[in-house]
Amino acid sequence: MAKPTAFASETTRRKALLEAVHALYDARQAGDFDEYLSYFAPDARMTVIGNPVLNPQSGLRVGRESIDRYIRQVHDENFYLGHGIDHIIAEGDHVVVRWHMDLRLAQNGREARFDALDYLRIRDNRIVEVTQFYDTGTMALLKGRIRIA
Q1: What is the count of structural domains for the chain?
Q2: Which residues pair with residue 66 across a beta bridge?
């Protein structure tokens, strides 16, 4: 029995999406900024959720240049020791990626694993929105912004 054409094209689309997500995160971790930014629409928005007092990198960035500055700053402050994608959930133009990263902070050499969750919205095969959630409290502890008594 032959598969319906719509099913085959959906399967092909999903495979391409999964490959693109893996390539996106590989480029980010490798510091290949041009490749990473090539996945974004020119007017893309990136929001890092968190308290800006504890994590000054929290907040909204609009446009590729702003996202580029953010990613470069993150790479200047951290050494990426590894990463992995744990789960990808995709439905239509919405993608959720649960992933982790192992970091060493440049300022003090402390290391930690961070779990992260990214929500991506796609339009015309480009990312138009990213909302990132990660443990900003642990990051603030590692950077000495908060102390445990």
Answers
A1: 1
A2: none
HEC profile for the chain?
CCCCHHHHHHHHHHHHHHHHHHHHHHHHHHCCHHHHHCCEEEEEEEEECCCCCCCCCCEEEECHHHHHHHHHHHHHHEEEEEEEEEEEEEECCEEEEEEEEEEEECCCCCEEEEEEEEEEEEECCEEEEEEEEECHHHHHHHCCCCCCC
148 is a domain residue: no
CA distance 35 to 135: 26
pTM of the complete model: 0.86
CA distance 145 to 149: 13
Residue 147 lies in a domain: no
- pLDDT band of residue 2 (cuts 50, 70, 90) is very low
CATH code, domain with 115: 3.10.450.50
Summarised one tens digit per residue, pLDDT across range 40-53 is 999 999 999 988 88
